[in-house]
Amino acid sequence: MPTPPTYSVPGPALWEALGWTPSAEQRHQFEALQQELLRWNARVNLTRLLEREDFWIAQILDSLWPLQDELRTPNAPRRCIDVGTGGGFPGLAVAIALPGAQLTLVDSVGRKTAAVLAMAEAIGLKERVRIRTERVELTGRDRGCRGQFDLAMARAVAAAPVVAEYLVPLLQPQGEALLYRGRWDQTDQRELEQALLALKARIRFQEGRELPAGKGMRHQFRLQPTAPCPKAYPRAIGLPAKLPLGSTPS
């Protein structure tokens, strides 16, 4: 019988599932990131997804699978932002995979951003990774961030309409927001589409796939501006989550 594929190490099965093969230097950086995450997680509770398939599928592959277009031109200059980065995902994985990109990672929890900055420095990403310790509602109103990014991402942060309100104001006119989602249904779709009407954006592309090794169903949504985002968004701290655009009058 053929040997079943293993995803507990960064071997051929993992990269085949992703549809992309990293360089030797990038593989070393991914492995170094895992070791740094293990070290820092003992001091700061960053994530439970640390080892074997939990790390290589639920962190690395799950961070990168929506980026098939970007992975074809990894050295292209891009300004990317990861909102609610937590333990550094997807931002640090994207920084490794796209050496031409400049990454801004945002989280409101200082102990997490301090750990993520230290990990970025340890694996050689210091020159391309910037950390902001603040609520994203503030990021979206900062002149240095609003309307500045080619790609704005958020993974496991909040409901889709809330995430859209966080990300769309950060996009330059030709930029895209990438929403990472798990389960998805028609109600979710309707609420996101309704929120995008207020934000002057649309869904350009959506896709679902099953992760290997039983790690579950994932969806990606690519959002594009259709006009400048109204100045009212993002609303004040806490309001996007308390009164999501897709389910209440805006």
What's the structural blueprint in terms of helices and strands?
Elements: H1 12-18, H2 24-41, H3 52-64, H4 68-72, E1 78-83, H5 91-97, E2 101-107, H6 110-122, E3 129-133, H7 136-139, E4 149-155, H8 160-167, E5 171-181, H9 186-199, E6 201-210, E7 217-225, H10 239-242
Parallel strand pairs: 1-2, 1-4, 2-3, 4-5
Antiparallel strand pairs: 5-7, 6-7
Helix pairs in contact: 1-3, 2-5, 2-6, 3-5, 8-9
Account of the 3D structure:
Helix 2 packs antiparallel against helix 5 (91-97) and helix 8 (160-167) runs parallel beside helix 9 (186-199). A 7-stranded mixed β-sheet has the order 3-2-1-4-5-7-6, sandwiched between helices. The protein is built from 10 helices and 7 strands. The chain is an alpha/beta fold. It has helices at 12-18, 24-41, 52-64, 68-72, 91-97, 110-122, 136-139, 160-167, 186-199, 239-242, and strands at residues 78-83, 101-107, 129-133, 149-155, 171-181, 201-210, 217-225. It has one domain: Rossmann fold (3-Layer(aba) Sandwich). The radius of gyration is 18 Å and the shape is globular.
